[in-house]
TrEMBL record, chain A:
Species annotation: Roseovarius marisflavi
Biased composition (Acidic residues): 87-100
Identification of the protein by name: PepSY domain-containing protein
Keywords linked to the UniProt accession: Signal
Pfam family of the protein (one): PepSY_2
Signal peptide extent: 1-22
InterPro entries attached to this UniProt entry: PepSY
Domain of life of the source: Bacteria
Region: Disordered, residue numbers: 87-132
Domain PepSY: 7-87
TrEMBL record, chain B:
Designated name of the protein: Tat pathway signal protein
Keywords: Signal
InterPro entries documented for this protein: DUF2271
Lineage: Bacteria, Pseudomonadati, Pseudomonadota, Alphaproteobacteria, Rhodobacterales
Keyword Signal set for record: yes
Length: 132, 154
């Protein structure tokens, strides 16, 4: 058992990725299927974000800017479909995304300032309160 | 005094069914000795079909596939958890969420599920499945791997 654990840790070190969970790239879209940057910008503005910079990272588009509430955000977007892969808030202080599966306490969505989805479960207009 | 009490009882009885009371969902994690757990709390109807999400603990969408029952039901659509996403929950710690839920969810065959996943550990879909009934409120339900117990209180 111990041997197995050591081997796993070793492999994880080599791969520099959370073996069981992390992929090498967050997006995997052929270059010919990428949407233009203007489309990304339009999508961001449609969400109410202000865009400072659009770059590519881990095979995705990454938007740096601010959300509608003025919080700094880093959003990974699928380059083909422009679906949101991941939203990080700048007050989240870890930059690598390999070992923070369970350490992203500061990456919490702002409960209480955002309305829950309209899925029929919640009272319309109510706001969740979270303590942890 | 008596009339006042009677009036109070009457108004309470009249207003109670129309109101949705705040429901507190308390999840205590066991000391499983790993990183923080991702938890998806969601509701299925009497037929077992996915109805909607109540909370997602864990901010990275690329890990959501490990919450496999939730992921199968939603296709991993983050719109399902927009505004109800928070941080993952550390081993041995507590997640306590208070939500204003529709009264229609109780005593109507709905079940609350919790999928759990921890990095490098085995996925645990539907680790907790508990029928939503008024009688079942405030009674802790034990989990299997990562969740020590779960309680919903009204």
């Amino acid at each position: 058992m111990k041997k197995y654990l050591i081997a796993t840790t070793f492999l994880a070190g080599i791969a520099a990725a959370g073996v069981a969970l992390a992929d090498d790239d967050d997006c995997n879209v052929a270059m010919s299927n990428w949407q233009p940057r203007e489309a990304v910008k339009a999508m961001a503005e449609a969400q109410g974000w202000s865009v400072r910079r659009i770059k590519t990272d881990d095979g995705c588009y990454e938007i740096d800017g601010r959300d509608a509430q003025g919080r700094e955000i880093e959003v990974k977007v699928d380059p083909g479909t422009l679906a949101i892969v991941e939203i990080e808030y700048e007050d989240d202080d870890d930059d690598d995304d390999d070992d923070d599966y369970g350490k992203s306490r500061k990456n919490a969505a702002p409960a209480g300032s955002v309305a829950p989805p309209d899925n029929g479960l919640f009272t319309p207009g109510s706001k969740p309160v979270v303590k942890q | 005094m008596k009339t006042l009490l009677a009036m109070l009882a009457l108004t309470t009885a009249l207003s109670a069914p129309a109101l949705a009371a705040p429901v507190t969902l308390t999840t205590n994690l066991s000391n499983y000795g790993g990183d923080g757990a991702y938890l998806a709390l969601y509701v299925t109807d009497a037929k077992g079909a996915y109805k909607g999400s109540l909370w997602m603990a864990g901010g990275k969408a690329k890990y959501y596939k490990h919450l496999s029952d939730w992921h199968r039901a939603t296709g991993g659509n983050t719109a399902e958890i927009s505004g109800i996403t928070g941080a993952s929950v550390g081993a041995g710690r507590q997640l306590k969420i208070t939500l204003d839920l529709s009264d229609a969810l109780f005593d109507a065959g709905y079940e609350l599920h919790i999928d759990a996943a921890v990095e490098d550990f085995r996925d645990s879909p539907s680790e907790v499945v508990v029928p939503l009934t008024r009688a079942g409120a405030n009674k802790p339900v034990a989990g299997r791997h990562y969740i020590r117990d779960f309680t919903y209180g009204m």
